[in-house]
Amino acid sequence: MDQPELTPGLLLRAYAAGIFPMSESRDDPELFWVDPLRRGVMPLDGFHISRSLARRLRRGGFEVTIDRAFKDVVAACADREETWINDVLFGMYSQLHTMGFAHSLEIWMDEELAGGVYGVTLGAAFFGESMFSRRTDASKIALAFLVDRLRKGGFILFDTQFLTDHLKSLGGKEISRASYRARLQEALSRQGDFTAPETPSPAVLAQRRTQTS
To answer: Per residue in 20-42, is it b (16+ CB within 10 Å) or e — as a string?
Structure first.
């Protein structure tokens, strides 16, 4: 039985149901749906700004932007030896971005794109898709600013899909499928705003480490 054609609407319905698509590789045109038994999430009140990350934030030397280079961020996330982002998904996320459902946060150093993260928003849920780093700590800086933006924007769920060692070191946790779906339903009943919050200065963000430690 043939699968229905993937459209932006179908993709959004899948996220609302707790599943997401992946491909085996960049060159594989086929997709499969994923519904993990254990789900990675980043608690928005539990992101860990380490002493070293706080120092890096205070040192500055970078610029943070929102939605300035969405396609470049997705392309950079896919530019690795093994990736699940094929051309079909690249096109879908680009369409969702045009529709206002997908966003990126970019880190610039020396006027070059040094790191970033992108994801899909529905209600008060942010579904983190992928991130990349071309300079030391760029992805950590991106996540720190992303978590701040989600908190200020009224989001209550930051879905990371899977829990990597990198995310775990920053405060990420793993929860059951049932617990995730309960949190997802609560998030879908609310409304977050990704673009409204102002971006804090790096020094202000670094200061929050002492306020929450």
So the answer is: bbebeebeeeebeeeebeebbbb
Domains in the chain with CATH codes: 38-82+101-212 (3.40.630.70)
Residue 68: φ, ψ to 5°: -80, -30
How many whole angstroms separate alpha carbon 21 and alpha carbon 31?
6
Integer Cα distance of 172 and 46 in angstroms = 8
Angstrom distance (rounded) from CA 19 to CA 178: 13
pTM score > 0.90 for this model?
yes
For the segment 91-113, the average pLDDT, to the nearest whole number, is: 97
Q: Residue 146 carries which side chain, given as an amino acid letter?
A: L
pLDDT classification of 25: cutoffs 50, 70, 90: confident
- Residue 136: what residue type? T
Residue 50 has a CB neighbour count (10 Å cut-off) of 13
